[in-house]
Design brief:
Layout (H helix, E strand, L loop, with lengths): L4 H17 L4 H8 L3 H13 L3 E3 L5 E3 L1 H23 L4 H11 L5 H11 L2
Antiparallel strand pairs: 1-2
Helix pairs in contact: 1-2, 1-3, 1-4, 2-3, 4-5, 4-6
């Protein structure tokens, strides 16, 4: 099933939170993204139904292999694009915001060319 940009954003957020905290609950996603509990609850349900995440009996969220792969790919795109924009003279806040939008639409071919150029 195709994963829309909003679902990608949630997966990336879960990935970042898992790196920081090792345990993540929906309330942590609310705080990280600034979204309401109902919005996060709905998204978590969709991600769970589509086998991107797992939620245990205590409400702790983990990622399936597919979810983890997507999140790691998005996080790499975000990091590389942010660093590229900063190296071009864009301030960090703007670079981060623009990279967040770009990471969802840029082709693999273009991203790999940027990555090869800026990670040398």
């Amino acid at each position: 099933m195709a994963l829309y940009e909003s679902g990608q954003m949630y997966l990336e957020a879960i990935h970042v939170l898992l790196q920081q905290n090792k345990k993540v609950r929906a309330i942590d996603i609310c705080a990280y993204l600034g979204y309401t509990k109902p919005s996060v609850s709905r998204a978590v349900g969709i991600l769970k139904r589509n086998n991107y995440i797992l939620v245990d009996g205590d409400g702790y969220i983990s990622m399936t292999e597919e979810g983890k792969q997507i999140a790691e790919n998005l996080y790499e795109r975000h990091t590389v694009l942010t660093n590229m924009l900063i190296s071009l003279g864009v301030d960090e806040k703007t670079a981060t915001e623009d990279a967040c939008r770009m990471e969802h639409v840029i082709s693999d071919k273009t991203f790999n060319a940027i990555k090869n150029k800026y990670l040398k």
